[in-house]
Design a protein that fits this description.
By secondary structure, the protein is of the alpha+beta class. It folds into 3 domains: about 200 residues, Hypothetical Protein Pfu-838710-001, CATH 2.40.320; about 160 residues, CHAD domain (Alpha solenoid); about 120 residues, CHAD domain (Alpha solenoid). It contains 16 helices and 9 strands. Helix 7 runs antiparallel to helix 12. The radius of gyration is 26 Å and the shape is globular. The two termini are about 40 Å apart.
């Protein structure tokens, strides 16, 4: 078995031609290959569910059988276990897989394997000495086909043959100075499955991060931060294709979780890392936040107002003004994703996370215990004086509860489920209540903005009354949460 450390980047066909003429590559003629691959799975796509790929590859006159077990990619960087051996097409022999459980999983299913999709592309390969490393750079150009559908391939892969991971990023930085390269997280296999399934693009929600008690805090942070980055990147396409409300919401949550993770782990992170990336995502997060506020107003806050005031002439004007503001906010988001600094930020952040060293090694359980206790105490202090909080302070209390929830979700694999589940349920209910209160506070500002400072009295009165009702219900929800024992 070998372990691939590979950086995948998308580029245009024009940029691919420019890359082939780059000074780092032009002095050495590339190796050229035509690669035809067929990927197999069971009818129920059991391999896909386990993030496993089985393929036959025709390379020249030789056929190879390859098995890959993939980890999620972030910032374009993927680490995969790979087994490859010469083979006869259609003969599934997994004796070369040296993981007994994994081999047994494959052997139990091979009689049900069927072709799912093919990839057909031309590859140019250079071996590039860079820093202390030898890096294989490959340009792939071709297509993926499944069920009569096809999608193009135009990407580069940088694979570390020997040396240090950060040299891959160093080489990419140098290439990015003159060529548009964009970190990609979807492998050819993933894109092939998407083509086979022919499913519409869907918003991507956060997934549990697989940390464990053998990790240091830095190792846990690396898993969490890259998971947040993957969460964001997998919603990028939805943002660029018009920004449906749930894509906006999930992208915003991803950045909020990422920024919370940096603050949470700041005591063990290098100060220069926190200084460089603590506020880096703020502009994009702010644009997503503005868009999300208008979406919530249009989809959740305005409909009951319109129902309460069916004859109010300002409702139609308010809806049109809000829609204009929402569209403008979406353009701000897509504009930020289009600037050349954005793909560089993805790459630089991924590189910085991967190359973090342990500045303060300590057991992850000790660190988790300290952080959970600290965030829970702060939330309880604010909850104990909720009756005297002004709207600004109540918003801060909402943020404190949100950070406590993210902290618990990050450390969930280390916590007893029996205590965590009811605690998170009570915390989620409390967050929902505080979120509704905040939506009505925000709505007053948005209405004043949309109506150019001429707020409608009855509408503002309705919102103020609804806000007061929600605040009056808050003590019951707070008490439910306070009755839970902190995990």
């Amino acid at each position: 078995m070998s372990t691939e450390i590979e950086l995948k980047l998308q580029l245009s066909p024009k940029a691919a031609r420019k890359l082939a003429a780059h000074p780092l590559l032009a002095s050495t003629p590339p190796q050229k290959l035509h690669l035809l691959n067929t990927y197999f799975d069971t009818p129920k796509l059991e391999l896909h569910a386990r993030r496993v790929a089985v393929r036959f590859r025709k390379q020249g006159w030789q056929w190879l059988c390859t098995v890959k077990s993939a980890e999620p990619a972030s910032g374009g960087l993927a680490m995969r276990s790979e087994w490859e051996t010469p083979a006869t097409p259609g003969v599934f022999d997994f004796s070369h897989v040296d993981n007994d459980d994994f081999r047994q999983f494959l052997e139990q299913r091979r009689d049900r394997f069927e072709a799912i999709f093919t990839t057909d592309f031309h590859r140019q390969i250079w071996q590039v000495p860079f820093g202390e490393s030898l890096i294989e750079l490959a340009i792939d150009h071709g297509k993926i086909e499944s069920c009569g559908r096809r999608t193009p391939i135009c990407e580069i892969e940088l694979e570390l043959l020997s040396g240090k991971v950060d040299d891959i990023f160093g080489l990419t930085r140098q290439l990015q100075q003159s060529i548009g390269l964009y970190p990609a997280i979807a492998s050819k296999a993933e894109r092939g499955y998407n083509l086979f399934l022919d499913e519409p693009l869907r918003p991507f929600k956060s997934k549990p991060v697989p940390i464990n008690d053998q990790q240091t805090p830095i190792e846990a942070f690396r898993s969490i931060a890259l998971g947040c980055l993957e969460h964001f990147q997998r919603n990028e396409k939805g943002l660029l294709l018009g920004g449906e409300a749930e894509f906006i919401h999930q992208a915003r949550v991803a950045l909020r979780r990422l920024r919370s993770a940096i603050k949470l782990f700041a005591p063990v992170l290098p100060p220069e890392f926190v200084a460089a990336y603590g506020q880096t995502w703020q502009t994009l997060a702010g644009a997503l936040g503005d868009t999300r506020n208008w979406d919530v107003f249009l989809e959740e806050t305005l409909p009951p107002i319109a129902e309460a005031f069916p004859d109010n002439r300002d409702i139609k004007r308010l809806r049109k003004a809000a829609q204009r503001r929402a569209n403008s906010a979406r353009k701000s988001v897509t504009g930020l994703l289009a600037v050349k600094e954005y793909p560089r930020l993805l790459l630089e952040f991924t590189a910085a996370v991967y190359t973090l060293g342990d500045t303060l090694p300590m057991p992850i359980k000790d660190f988790a215990r300290q952080q959970i206790s600290s965030h829970a105490r702060k939330a309880r202090r604010m909850a104990s004086r909720h009756a005297e909080l002004c709207p600004e302070e109540r918003h801060k209390m909402r943020i404190a509860f949100k950070r406590l929830r993210y902290t618990l979700e990050f450390f969930a694999p280390l916590l007893p489920p029996r205590r965590l589940k009811p605690y998170l349920a009570a915390l989620s209910q409390l967050q929902d209540e505080l979120g509704l209160i905040n939506d009505h506070v925000t709505a007053e500002t948005l209405i004043a903005e949309a109506l150019a400072g001429r707020p409608d009295g009855p509408i503002q009165g309705w919102i103020s009354g609804r806000h007061a009702l929600l605040v009056s219900e808050l003590p019951v929800v707070l008490q439910t949460w306070l009755a839970q024992r902190t995990p």
